[in-house]
Here is the input.
Amino acid sequence: MLTLPAMHDPAALSNELHKYSELRGCAVTAWDSLTCPCGNETFTLFSDEIRGGAGAVCSACDEPQSLFDSADLMQDVEQHCCSCEHDHLYVMTAVACPDAIDLVRWRYIAGQCAECALVGVYVDWSVV
Ligand SMILES: [Zn+2]
Ligand SMILES: [Zn+2]
Here is the structure.
């Protein structure tokens, strides 16, 4: 089996976010790849599945980032990893901006495994 590190594929991440959020009925309107100030692009990803909120820790320099300034929401913090059990992910964050009627805003966070390249949406929550 090849053990080369997976290539970062932002297009695959944004495609997955679009598919997932359209199924949710609140399609993403803006998205962004997460990069650490040190320049690294892989992170370990944490979230609270019940309350929402997410944070990421840089795989290179251990600097934490609060995603959408939401890290304070987290109480039961769980770490995410790929189904291959690798836990370093390329991360893309996305928001769905509502129309005037539906004021619930969705936050979505997708990850791509840095080992096997599998892409998935790991976290979502809504903010009223
Ligand atoms: Zn860093
Ligand atoms: Zn994987």
